[in-house]
Amino acid sequence: MKFLVGYNGSDVSKAALSLARTYADLLxxxxxxxxxxxxxxxEKPDDIGKATxxxxxxxxxxxEKGIPCRTEQLARGMTPGEDMVKYAQENDVDQIFVxxxxxxxxxxxxxxxxxQYIILKAPCPVVSVNxx
Length: 132
What we know:
Layout lengths: L1 E5 L4 H17 L2 E7 L8 H19 L5 E6 L5 H11 L4 E6 L4 H7 L2 H8 L4 E5 L2
Parallel strand pairs: 1-2, 1-4, 2-3, 4-5
Helix pairs in contact: 3-5
């Protein structure tokens, strides 16, 4: 069994990480933790470094419980929602864990909703987690 967690280091994504660890521990699942960045010249070295540190934290978080975990930093020119759905398809993921942050209507119009895209387009069940 494989779980996928979309992770960016935010509090809500840490909540998704924590829930995925609980389920993986109970069900003996492998966890894939992914950070999606647009890539190319638009990425700043500081942002890449933060993403690398965030993924290292996630890997250690699962190692504490002896849960198999792989991390990946994606930069494929897609939105995070598109990236997660495609990654889930490519890796035969059984369940996705994603953090949900509240946004105003204007923010949704301008930024879109990655979580909504994942929930509607994912090839498997999606567990959404909001901040504690």
